[in-house]
User: Fold this.
Amino acid sequence: MSSIAAESKSISGLLEYLIKSLVDDPESVTITEVERPDITIYEVRVAPGDLGRIIGKQGRVVNALRTVARAAARGERRVQVEVISDAS
Assistant:
């Protein structure tokens, strides 16, 4: 396994652990990894009732998650965390 693949698995696992600790419905948490040549995007989906818990007041929680993901990447690769709302 390449170092980038191993690193992305650890970032995905870290995000999953943190997000499942924050929400009321941890079974509905899904993290999709989208690889692009210059960046890795982690798309986070949670239950509609937990969306506010992940975003937090003034976006503080999601910004903290983004900071943790960037720190876990150790500057070798750009990462981005996006919260996807499936509300119709």
Notes: The first strand starts at residue 30 and ends at 35. The mean pLDDT is 88. The beta strands are 30-35, 39-45, 78-83. Residues 3-22 form the longest helix (20 residues).
